[in-house]
Amino acid sequence: METRVAVIGIIVEKSDSIEKMNQILHEYAEYIIGRMGIPYRQKGISIISIAIDAPQDIISALSGKIGRIDGVSAKTAYSNYIYKENE
Length: 87
Description:
alpha+beta; four-stranded antiparallel beta sheet; 2 helices
């Protein structure tokens, strides 16, 4: 299996969307390396970054599911290196 390391940047503009986003992240917990969330209270949004190590299709699926939640946007930055299963 080949995996890539990526960072998914998430902006949450509707706080009632956070529960749905957290449910989706929980489904992919085995691939998530770490997560950092910053509430930007002055603007009423949350900024979240997810570090992930997974096959490309898993990363794309997670980012797509998150990006389809109302009030949430997501963009992904991938590492250039593809890791083989034995690495």
